[in-house]
Amino acid sequence: MHPDRSTTWTPSPGGSPEQPRQVRRILKLFKPYGGRLAIVGLLVGASSLVSVATPFLLKEILDVAIPQGRTGLLSLLALGMILSAVVTSVFGVLQTLISTTVGQRVMHDLRTAVYGRLQRMSLAFFTRTRTGEVQSRIANDIGGMQATVTSTVTSLVSNLTSVVATVVAMVALDWRLTVVSLLLLPLFVWISRRVGNERKKIATERQKQMAAMAATVTESLSVSGILLGRTMGRADSLTRSFEKESESLVGLEVKSNMAGRWRMAVITIVMAAMPAVIYWTAGMALQLGGPSISIGTLVAFVSLQQGLFRPTVSLLSTGVQLQTSLALFQRIFEYLDLPIDITEPDDPVRLDRIKGEIRFEDVEFHYDDKSGSILQGIDITVPAGGSLAVVGPTGAGKSTLGHLVPRLYDVTGGRVTLDGVDVRDLDFDTLARAVGVVSQETYLFHASVADNLRFAKPDATDEELYTAAKAAQIHDHIASLPDGYDTVVGERGHRFSGGEKQRLAIARTILRDPPVLILDEATSALDTRTEHAVQEAIDALSANRTTLTIAHRLSTVRGADQIVVLDSGRTVERGTHEELLESDGRYAALVRRDARLESTR
């Protein structure tokens, strides 16, 4: 008994998971690189301790070495300050190298995980999701996290260590001045959190707008999009539409960069003014009879306080950046959490020798609970090496029936079997080897003819390419091209005609040599002459294979062993061409319609 695997996915309406859980999930991304991060932590700690030592060396120079004229001690202390700077710089370079490497590995893991997840999604997901949206998640969202992943974590640890070490050193010098220096710190933390929350909301909105703009670019600037826009006279309209989306992004970018900028500027001003406050506090304490503070201690303290300024502001800015990045992580996690509705079983069946018998047993299918049934009660058997043609009006469910065999969709009732095994129980490799699909929408990569053919069989020899192309009746045309099989086909194969692309697709399938063949409207978009050439290639491809042909033009199915007529997802007629003509039902009416259309051409 197989569960209903037709569950669909829609993103949550702006609701993000609880922040602590999301942060824990982000930290898990770094878990495989714990050893390297530990080294970074040691370098950060050592660098912070070395840099904090410099003010104490300065205090000794001002309070002891110079007043007492101890030139040897002065030289030693000065050398210590120089070495401190050298060691800090070297440690900084090393920690940047390691942390950047770790960050880029995490980025690689994220990109690969999202791409791998999407590769496992059913066809239904891609029919309801814009291509540009998918590309934006991988490129813009993950790219937008680059600074956070590669440097923010290290910056957070480094700045936090520096702040702690500096505060401890300040207390060691004078705890009263330390209290004065840190009075406003809680206010600064509160301000930075407010700014972070504000930027996070804007970042979510901005990424959605970027995804919408990317989708517009992908759709309208493809070869098909350009052809449609030009021939429909909509180029200016598309430009105005893009301009409007880009204008919206401008506003969001400005809001993102200016969010909390004035509040953070106040923090910067206050932190920069703190040395004056320290000098004033020390002077007033001395005038009021308080304890005196040596010049060396005061200069060293102000040096530490200034040293505290940079990591504190950076720490607050990092907090804001982390808040903003949570919006990007949330969008990526949404894709990583997509339910996989077509999965391989825990203990899949592998068929070493595939005969090719296909059975549809009481098959039902619907896309989701809200839509009606696309297929109902389909019972069909196609013997190994036999041929089945499926015909019927548009929307009858013909293509959907063909998609169930290679598991582009899963049935919602009944089952589809290959050699008696439910296709849902087969391993993906067996199913991929068993079933080849040639559809009306031929897809070719922007690569050479040879590369497109070898997509079916990467280790194919040149001779195998030629044999497949000859069988598909496309070899002579390829050979006549200036670059032969090295000719680049262009975006989506637009350098070739429809019939040529179809024959390339057929050659690609011949090269793969599947025992079961699904032909989905493979010649419906071709003219009669081209259809004849392609049909001869299809006949060569179909020989000795189990063939399921979904056809619009009935001239291509007359020789099928069995013809099934679908209407509204149900089988209304079945038989051979002659039997169905004799019964004078739906099929006969479709044949007469085709004859009338042919006579008007």
TrEMBL record:
The keyword GTP-binding does not apply. Pfam families: ABC_membrane, ABC_tran. The chain crosses the membrane at residues 37-58, 70-98, 163-191, 264-282. GO terms for molecular function: ATP binding. It comes from the Bacteria. Residues 358-593 form the ABC transporter domain. Residues 1-20 are annotated as: Disordered. Keywords: ATP-binding, Membrane, Nucleotide-binding, Transmembrane, Transmembrane helix. It is found in: Cell membrane. InterPro entries: AAA+_ATPase, ABC1_TM_dom, ABC1_TM_sf, ABC_transporter-like_ATP-bd, ABC_transporter-like_CS, P-loop_NTPase, Type_1_exporter. Signal peptide: none annotated. Gene3D superfamilies: ABC transporter type 1, transmembrane domain, P-loop containing nucleotide triphosphate hydrolases. Residues 1-13 have a biased composition (Polar residues). It is a multi-pass membrane protein. PANTHER family: ATP-BINDING CASSETTE SUB-FAMILY B MEMBER 10, MITOCHONDRIAL, ATP-DEPENDENT PERMEASE MDL1, MITOCHONDRIAL. This is ABC transporter ATP-binding protein.
